[in-house]
Every structure is written in C-alpha cells, then in structure tokens.
Design brief:
Elements lengths: L6 H18 L9 H11 L2 H11 L5 H13 L3 H14 L1 H10 L4 H13 L1 H7 L5 H20 L3 H17 L3 H14 L3 H32 L2 H4 L7 H12 L8 H15 L6 H11 L1 H11 L14 H13 L3 H23 L7 H11 L7 E6 L4 H13 L7 H4 L4 H8 L2 E6 L13 E7 L9 H6 L4 E2 L3 E4 L4 E8 L2
Parallel strand pairs: 1-2, 1-3
Antiparallel strand pairs: 3-6, 4-6, 5-6
Helix pairs in contact: 1-5, 1-7, 2-4, 3-12, 5-9, 6-9, 7-18, 7-19, 9-10, 9-11, 9-16, 10-12, 11-12, 14-15, 16-18, 20-21, 21-23
Length: about 500
Amino acid sequence: MPSRLQPTTIATIAVVALFIGMRLWRLTDFALDGDEIFSVQLARDNWHDLFAGAVQDAIHPPLLYVLLKLWIEVGGESLLWLRLFPFTASVLCLLPVFSLCRDLKISPGARNLAIAIVAVHPYAMYYSQHLRMYCLLMLAALLSAWRFERYLDRPSVRNLVILSAANLFLGYTQYYGWCVVLLEFAYLLWKSRPRNASAFLTATLPVAILFSPWAWYAGKVLHVRGLIQNLGWISKPTFGDFNWFWVDLTGFAEFQNIGTNGVLAILILFLLCYRRYSEPRVHWLMLLWIAPAPIAFAVSQWLPQSIWGHRHLLFAIWPFFLLFADAVWRMPRLVSYAVVAAATVWGAYAAAFHATDNRKLPWDVLTLAMLDAEHTSAQQIPIYAIDPYLHYPFEFYLDCLKSGRGGPLGPRLSSRSDAGDLALKAGRFQAVKIDDIKQLDSGKTSSYFWMAWTDSSWHEALTPPQTLERRGCRAGAEISQRDNYHKVMMTPMNCE
C-alpha cells in the first residue's frame, strides 16, 4: 500500500498553494502604473536603446530591463504575461527560503508558519504583482543570504565563488543590494574572522570590476544631473517614517488603528521569547532584517538627496518572519497556538484587504472610457494634463491601441469586439503635459480638447473646466476614476 503523506508534508503543500494562489488572485485586475510602464517601454526597445535609456535613468541598474525584454520575447506583452514576471520572482524566493530553513535547523512547522504569513502579507503581496525590480531584489538578496550562510558553515573556495555570483546578480538588480554585500563583510569582521573577511573581500573585487562599467556610465549621468530629477519627490525621512517602515514590515500598514501597537507587541514578543541569540549563524539573519533600514535612514540624512524607500527594503520581510516564526514555534505549546490563532485572524483580514485593494489607478479603464465618450469628428484632439506625470499613462495606453499592441490593456480590451475602431480613434489623440491652465491662453492650443487633472495636484476653488467655462468654453460630461490616494478627472472642452 502507498504510504500516507505526513501531516507536515500536507501543511507544506497547503501553505505553498496558499502562497501561489494569493499571488495569482487578481493578477490582471490592476493597470500598469507609471513606473511599470517605464519598465515595459525600455524592454520594448532594441538592445542599444534599452541600455541607453537605462543609463539615462541611472537610478536603477539594468538587469530588470534585460530580463523583462527576454521575458516579453518569449511570451509577448499581455497583461497576464507581464504580471507573471514579478509573480515568478516572488515564488522562486521559496527555494532559498527552504534551503535557509534546512541549514539553520528551523523546523518545518515554523517554516510553514512564516510562508503562510508572507503569503498574505499586504506589503509582500503588492510587490509580487508589481512589474519592477523589487521582487527580483528580494530573490537576489535571499540567494545571497543563503549562500553566505553556506560560506559561514563551510568557507570553501567553491562556496565563495557561488556567493560572489549571487552578489553580482544582487548588485545588478538594485543598488540597495550592495547594502547586503556590505553587511556580509561587516558580519565577518564582527565575528572576528579576518581570514574569511580577507577572502570575501578578494572575491568581491571581480564582482566590483564587473559592475564598474555600469557604475561609470550611470555615475557620469548622475554627476551632471544629480538625483533630484528622479528622486526629488522623496523627502528626508523623519523618525515617524522610520517607525512606519517597521509597521509595514510587520504587516500592519493597512490596519492603521492598531499599526504601531501591533508592531510593538510583535517585536516585544519576539525579543522576550527568542532563545537562539547565542547561535552565530542566526546572528546573520537577524542582522539582515534589523540593519538595512537604519543604514538607509542614516544615509538619507547624510546625502543631499534622500534615497529612503520601503520597497527597496522588501528583502527584510523573509529574515524577519523566518526568525519570528522560529521563536513562536519554540514557545510553550499553549502560547504558540495562541500566537498562531492571532496570526490566522490577521491573515484573514489581510486577505480581505487584498480582495478590495485599490492602490493603483485604472489608467486602461480611463483611456477606454474617454475613447467611448468621444463622438466628435475632430481629427486632432489634445489631452491637456495638469500634472507632472498624468500625461504619461494616457500616452502609453493610446500608443498601445494605435500600434495594435493592446496586450497591456488585458481583459479590458480583449473582452471587446471594437479594437479596430478604438485604434483609429486613439490615433486622433495626443497627451500633452501642461504646468498651468494659463498655458491654454497662448493662442496655440486647439479649440476642442480634453482636460485631465487630479485632486492631488489641483487645489483651486474652481475646477479646470469651471475656470474655462468662465472664459466662454463649454464642458462635456466628466469621467473619473480613483484609487486609495487620489482621483483623476477628465472632461471634453469646446472653446470655439
């Protein structure tokens, strides 16, 4: 007779299925936002223009764009296929997680608890469906952390070479990856292993040499332009911002009424109950979730331009919850079950949050609604967008329709039978960024146009259409969409 599956094996299959299922849930419900659109546009370019565009952007290394270009060449650019890229990176994180748990002797029960928590964690969920480099950074950091653990256990040349390869992948994924490399070197010095630290430094030299061409070209751009153009919107973090990172990390950012208290409860529980502080190899994983945020906070205070961002520290989630779950699993059974029950309640609320999550504007829906509402015979129709970034997604989705590359519109377009008519109509539109409504008085603007604005960038008593109506223009019906943060409104205007 075939042997029956062990309860632990069944639990492992269940939490992995939960992890995968949560990341597939609502995968195509969200439109691409501005940053994701930038990723797709670079990946569409030929190889020369891809690297030229990445160098001009300069604030992110190019590995994401290279891998995304290959991804698109394999499967096209339907919204589902594009979203499967970060999904795949997120799921692949489970491989080093299982390996770390085995090497650190974290029990299967604790490992499964950690996977179940991260499966529904709002912070991790969001970026597992976000077409940028942050899940790739998490994967690269976990691979590096795992191989560093192997090197600590067996400091062989082979393990050092594999670790160096992982660190090269990490460095080309995101600049924050170099923080992990720095922490690895600092850990070797801290643990008084000068011989290993010297070997690590020697092995990191070729990694730095291989990264140096990118650093040289990107550095030249940033030396001339500075960071303000790309990062000027990021202010220097306050201690409140620093505290909110821990709220985000522990999964309470979407539960603001209990956010800080929840964090304090979890951290106090962790610090009081964990009994593996004396184990050197556990120190490394603790350092990996504790140190990056204070380092980023201090560097952001020191640099002229802040580089603070929670998403760059996404990789701290796994080390934190692996050790937290290990602490919970080592508690007295009654206490352990109570914590697991509380985590289950939190997980149900987190899953319910994802069911109604609205953190991205539906640019595709807005674009199609505008085209559906347009019934004039005008051949050239500007969309005047009063916002620094508002024109960008409209320009992208209109171009997708014009060029017949409608994949990024996903089911919103594939469910319709009038794609040809929409393409013709989209060809008549052009998105134009304006800084102020006074630019429409120049005499160089069309008499018929669409006006677009957001409630976060327009603070006057009268809306743009109301202001133009006072000058004799006629406003059509308004269409709008909103997310959790702001609302976008659009109106056709006739100023003949």
